[in-house]
Amino acid sequence: MGTVELRFSPLPAHVRTARLVAVSLARRAGLDEEVLDEVRLAVGEAASRAVGRHEVDCPAEPVLVRLTDADGLFVAEVVDRAHGSASGTDVLLGPVSQIADHPADELPAGFDLAVIGGLVQDVSVEVGANGSVVRMCWPVPTAPRRAAVPVTQSRSPGEPAH
Amino acid sequence: MDLSLASRTEGDKTVVSVGGEIDVYTAPKLREQIVQLVEEGHYHLVVDMEDVEFLDSTGLGVLVGGLKRVRAHDGSLRLVCTQERILKIFRITGLTKVFPIHSSVAEAVEATG
Q: What residues in A contact B61, CB-CB < 8 Å?
């Protein structure tokens, strides 16, 4: 499949587009249907986070979603270019259940990353002064081996059988 | 895909039926509906999510916000959901401890407390 890149203006309406493209490619890569739900939700959360960061800092810059199928992995990277230093909440949180103990008026900052962390086993977040990258990986199931098919030799008409 | 919303009264509760996808784009519409209902004096809400096809953390935030609004009036907010794909995000976030989740509107309407 190679790599597919999607750039879009940081508008909430486009987050669904990112989800649809990611799921379409993940399905083509061979991920199970149950895993596709994880891809849909995780990519959506990462894209929503990126849109939110761009809306505040750089609304004219596009958000980038890069989707790659290689080396047995389906990889989704959501890249934003929002400036700002890494904050304590901009990391994958640990036990998300503790959030339920303090239900604020809305959810605390970083909750989107907490959801991703709870969904995806192989995820990393790199935050720098010029933006951040949320990288999520899913193993692509290997195709089942075909059973060996016996090959019989064909003979031309008139050729005696041995 | 747009979000569909419809509300009706059943017993002493107001049932909000939600359909479609609840995400960063559509969640504000659900928030507006909940805010409006509370302003109109509807403090015991049942949110029927059986026709919801997608829910993310933005949607969860709206539900949490709605819960706090009704609780300020000693009200309640219950959910109806049997879809495993939707229940999963509640489990991951631990919000199953926060929201009563029922398997039918009838059960949610009959529930007290």
A: 106-107, 111
